[in-house]
Design a protein that fits this description.
single chain, 50% strand
């Protein structure tokens, strides 16, 4: 059974760092686009970034501060978040897409293109 499980969220002071992890099971991972999204209270779920192979893609709001990486033997994707701001407070979700490929990078930001979702992990940045 395909499953994604996020961990690593918590409370951090502005300017601090956190690393989120997303463990994948079942057939998820190899060849899948792995994405990170976030949802703040009262707002829509928004794209943070994605990774396919060695290629990474980020939203403008996190570019230069967040880094996505993957450990294939461990079936795990990471989201390293530096220079955190109160505006980064949200529930962070990991997602996997079996439909997207390397030529679809412009589509990575649309959540409807993802087939599997984790339960989310809360990140709170205090000012």
């Amino acid at each position: 059974q395909e499953q994604l499980v996020e961990s690593g969220g918590g409370l951090v002071q502005a300017g601090g760092s956190l690393r989120l992890s997303c463990g994948a099971s079942g057939r998820i991972f190899s060849g899948y686009v792995m994405g990170w999204f976030r949802q703040a209270p009262g707002k829509e779920r928004e794209f943070v970034g994605a990774i396919l192979g060695s290629g990474t893609y980020y939203s403008d709001s996190v570019k230069g501060r967040f880094t996505i990486s993957r450990d294939n033997p461990k079936n795990t994707v990471y989201l390293r978040m530096n220079s955190l701001e109160p505006e980064d407070t949200a529930v962070y979700y990991c997602a996997a897409s079996r439909r997207l490929n390397a030529y679809d990078s412009s589509q990575y930001k649309y959540r409807d293109n993802y087939d599997y979702w984790g339960q989310g992990t809360q990140v709170t940045v205090a000012s």
